[in-house]
Design brief:
By secondary structure, the chain is mainly α. It has one domain (2-62). It has 3 helices and no strands. The longest helix is centred in the N-terminal third of the chain and has 23 residues, at 2-24. The chain is flat. The termini are far apart. 0% of the residues are buried.
Length: 63
């Protein structure tokens, strides 16, 4: 339980630092990086895992 609490705290601190960087700092590629981050966060992991499973199963059959 303590490990989960530590991981949650670490993730929150990391994401807060990233959010601060995106909102306050100006750097080259910020818009593109933010768009890619949002696209990754918008789709659930299941939408990626199922096509990967189908692709791996197809590759296994072809060998």
């Amino acid at each position: 339980m303590a490990a989960l609490s530590l991981m949650a705290w670490r993730n929150s601190a990391t994401e807060a630092a990233g959010a601060y960087a995106f909102s306050r700092l100006s750097f080259r590629g910020r818009d593109r990086l933010m768009l890619s981050y949002l696209l990754v966060r918008m789709f659930p992991a299941v939408m990626v895992i199922i096509p990967l499973f189908v692709m791996m199963r197809t590759l296994a059959r072809s060998q």
